[in-house]
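re: ur question from earlier - yeah i can do the single chain one, its not a big deal. heres the input i used so u can compare w yours
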Amino acid sequence: MRREREPDDRYHAALRAAQEPAQPFEAALWRLKNQGQGDDVIVRLVDAYEDPFERELLQAWILAGATDEDISTRLGAWGDILTPYRHLCCNVFTFRDRLEMLRWVHRYEGTREGKLLLTRAVHFDGVEALAHLCGLTSNLSPSHVNEQAMRETYFRSMGTMRSTSISSAENQAAHQMIKTAMTAAAASQKSGAPNINEALLKLKHREMTFHVEDVMPHGEILH
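and the output i got, formated as tokens:
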């Protein structure tokens, strides 16, 4: 039977160690506990980990794939604590693969808000979804919005249509969602069929033609 793997195993292992660990971050944490000696970085790290709100917020951003710069800039976190925090308190390499990470999120037993943050981090739009939940500006491009709208409305509508009768109100609403998905899909296309009206407008307002003598300086003009 496999042992449950937790991303903060190193934090607790360092606190339980009988003697000072060799790893620098773990050693700094051990000295803070056993000797009362710790620099400002390790003290701030412990404060962030021991506070449920800060711990759940930071672990969600880390699992979403946020860089240290993202976390420091957007959350205003003290940048110096992030490298040791990743090592001690939220070590994503604890998970052998993404499947195990998703399992850990599914079984998470923290606060309801903390689980919501983790779910958004690993299942939805990652960093940008977390930024939105935190009341921060999300850096979403129009193409990304169109793509997400297309996926969400398409799969929701197909699931509804297959599980309801044709004459039901739910089925009719699903048909409207299909139209929304098709509109978003069309807007997401990088190129489409040639548009003759656009070509005529360009010819009208821009010089896009060449003098015949430049094209066929010695040729015969056909009439």
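DSSP finds 13 helices and no strands in the chain. not sure if urs matches, ping me
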